[in-house]
Amino acid sequence: MLSFALMATAIGPGLLRAQAAPPSFTPEEVGINERLGTTIPLDLELKGEDGKPVNLRQLIDKPTILTLNYFRCAGICTPQLGGVVEVLNRTQAIPGKDFQVITVSFDERDDPEIAAQKRTNYLGEIKRPFPPSAWRFLTGPAATSKALADAVGFKFKRVDDDFVHAAAIIFISPKGVITRYMYGTSYLPADLQLAAQEAARGEAQPTINKFLKFCFSYDPVGRKYVLNVTAISAAIIIVAALIFVFALTRRGRQTKSEERP
Fold first, then answer.
1. What are the strands, taking DSSP E only, across 3-159?
2. Is residue 187 exposed (0-12), middle (13-18) or buried (19+ Cβ within 10 Å)?
3. Given pLDDT bands bounded at 50, 70 and 90, which one contains residue 253?
4. Cα-based distances in Å from 186 to 17, 77, 87
5. Is pTM beyond 0.85 here?
6. Dist CA 41 CA 176 (whole Å)
7. Is 73 annotated as a binding residue?
8. Residue 211 and residue 226: Cα distance in Å, rounded?
9. CA 60 from chain center: how many Å?
């Protein structure tokens, strides 16, 4: 709202009965299982902002940044897409030439009208020359968006009227090959430029910031990321134990060496 994702571990945003216990999900249920090097189904047909059908093969002719969101999202989708806007404002890569962005809603209730509204809103926040065609907002049937989500390893769960899901941008080559995942809600311009270049060459690269999924978890109620204190504490204890064992072993060897005639 990470296998390899910065992920939600609590409930989805929305109204809950006071007596209802909030559901929780495992990484396998709402995380991302990277499918680097695989090709997405390019013949999937979605709807453009004008309501006209379009398939991914028509659109993906250059390095593409794919985001999966839902447009009524009151949680992580807004900061994530805001993070996309921020990096688009800062990158030196040329939109429409070096890359494009495609945002697909996995909520079948979203329609072209709300997609067009979201597109206008986010394009309005970009403070540099940016052709509208370089960022598309697409909608479609649940089966179609689910097929795309499955193809990129993106998992989500519905909770009442909302969804619990991870935040990531996924780089796709002009031939539809998945080349890189970036997690969270903020991205570095240099990382985007490098990932776009790799996508242009069709080079799949492993994720290097997977530790983020271990340190942070998303709090949908507070609409923020929080430190996973338990996970960090466990990691510190393990590291400290290893250092302690190493020190004892080394000390024992030194003592034996000193006792030799």
1. 45-47, 53-55, 64-69, 100-105, 135-138, 156-159
2. buried
3. low
4. 33, 12, 8
5. no
6. 8
7. yes
8. 14
9. 19
